[in-house]
């Protein structure tokens, strides 16, 4: 079998099954630890609100609070989401407030996926390489992000009632978003519309 055939065989025979197993494990963990995970998300939201209240950005008003997955972090097995509060200029805000949220509860399964696939590629005798596995794992990151998105949607309903959030000086159309860093993100809350489940941009 040539390299292209080997990659296709590897993907269909092993990679997709192992990925589905890891996604199932992440889903199960989420259901079993849901209240604990919601609490930790709310703590991170409270922390960025406290920062924003005491920062210069608070003087102009908060326009966006974002939770962002960074693929460069994933490859280093750093499973932190970047949490930022911006003014109405969003990414052009020169001094956003900055924090992190540890999403290792979901993305540690991504690391396990990579380890297992690197073992499974060995019998293919130099037709499948570590960068091939890394590429598959990086693409799979989107599917693990869906559990982070689910958590955000479940937690934000409580988080927006925090006194620290209510104390923020906000733009009339403040948005809380979760997605890829400076890429596609989904609105989970807007001061104009309340809790939202389904807007992307």
Quick overview of this protein structure:
The protein is α+β, with helices and mostly antiparallel strands. The protein has 7 helices and 6 strands. The chain has a 6-stranded mixed beta sheet with strand order 3-2-1-4-5-6.
Describe the structure.
The radius of gyration is 19 Å and the shape is elongated. The chain contains seven helices and six strands, in the order αααβαββαααβββ. Strand 4 and strand 5 form a beta hairpin. The model has no long low-confidence stretch (mean pLDDT 90). The protein has a six-stranded mixed β-sheet. Helix 1 packs antiparallel against helix 5, helix 1 packs parallel to helix 6 and helix 2 packs across helix 6. It has 201 residues and is an alpha+beta fold. The longest helix is centred in the first third of the chain and has 30 residues.
Chain-wise SSE layout:
Elements: H1 3-32, H2 34-53, H3 57-60, E1 62-69, H4 71-75, E2 80-86, E3 97-102, H5 104-120, H6 130-159, H7 163-166, E4 170-180, E5 185-190, E6 194-200
Parallel strand pairs: 1-4
Antiparallel strand pairs: 1-2, 2-3, 4-5, 5-6
Helix pairs in contact: 1-5, 1-6, 2-6, 5-6
Total number of helices:
7
**Residues in helices, as a percent range:** 40-55%
Structural classification: alpha+beta
Global outline? elongated
Features:
201 residues, alpha+beta
């Amino acid at each position: 079998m040539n390299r292209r055939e080997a990659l296709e065989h590897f993907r269909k025979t092993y990679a997709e099954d192992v990925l589905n197993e890891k996604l199932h494990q992440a889903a199960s963990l989420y259901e079993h630890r849901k209240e604990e995970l919601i609490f930790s998300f709310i703590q991170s939201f409270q922390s960025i609100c406290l920062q924003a209240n005491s920062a210069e950005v608070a003087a102009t008003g908060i326009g966006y609070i974002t939770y962002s997955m960074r693929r460069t972090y994933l490859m280093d097995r750093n499973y932190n989401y970047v949490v930022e509060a911006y003014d109405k200029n969003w990414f052009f805000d020169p001094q956003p407030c900055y924090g992190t949220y540890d999403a290792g509860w979901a993305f540690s399964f991504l690391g396990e996926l990579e380890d297992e696939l690197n073992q499974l590629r060995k019998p293919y005798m130099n037709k499948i390489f570590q960068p091939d596995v890394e590429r598959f794992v990086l693409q799979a990151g989107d599917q693990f992000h869906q559990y982070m998105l689910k958590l955000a949607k479940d937690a934000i309903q409580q988080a927006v009632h925090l006194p620290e959030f209510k104390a923020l000086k906000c733009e009339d159309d403040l948005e809380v978003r979760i997605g890829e860093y400076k890429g596609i993100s989904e609105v989970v809350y807007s001061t104009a519309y309340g809790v939202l489940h389904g807007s992307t941009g």
